[in-house]
Design brief:
Elements lengths: L7 H12 L4 H8 L1 H4 L7 H24 L6 H8 L3 H26 L3 H35 L1 H5 L5
Helix pairs in contact: 4-6, 4-7, 6-7
Length: about 160
């Protein structure tokens, strides 16, 4: 099969049947799998896992910055000024969930096993389904707090 003939969805669906993976449309909706794999990979499951980890790692970094703001971007300070204790607890919970994903992914990078990759994809997809609405609501609050933060407007160097 030549690179321009590779059909990602068909290749995925063969693995989906074997390992009971999430629907291609659903995993692609959440993790943009189809945009990140454009040629036939040798280890499709590993590539999909890495795409999933790339997205979850971005959120892990955001929440880590919020928990431990060591030289963060300026917008983080305006977010942190207005974060409730409840939201801080939620941030820590999400951080812990995403950290577990990261640790498991590191293990998988050491020794490749297709069935372990499949298990990771299924479990991480399910965890993401449970967590993404919470993350979305947090980010909505960050956005509202950022927009309503008058101190950032008053102290701006460029104002």
């Amino acid at each position: 099969m030549e690179n321009d003939e590779f059909d990602l969805e068909s290749a995925y669906n063969k693995l989906k049947t074997e390992y009971d993976l999430p629907e291609f449309e659903k995993i692609s909706e959440d993790f943009d799998v189809e945009k990140n794999i454009d040629k036939e990979p040798v280890f499709l499951m590993r590539d999909i896992r890495r795409i999933i980890v790339e997205k979850t790692s971005a959120y892990l970094q955001l929440f880590e910055t919020l928990i431990n703001p060591n030289s963060p971007p300026m917008f983080v300070f305006s977010i942190l000024r207005n974060v409730s204790t409840e939201d801080k607890d939620t941030i820590k919970e999400i951080y812990k969930i995403l950290s577990r994903i990261q640790i498991e992914a590191m293990k998988l990078d050491i020794i490749y096993k297709e069935d372990a990759e499949a298990k990771f994809i299924v479990e991480t997809f399910n965890v993401w389904q449970k967590s993404k609405l919470t993350i979305y609501k947090l980010i909505e609050k960050f956005e509202m707090n950022f927009e309503s933060d008058d101190t950032s407007k008053k102290r701006s160097y460029f104002a």
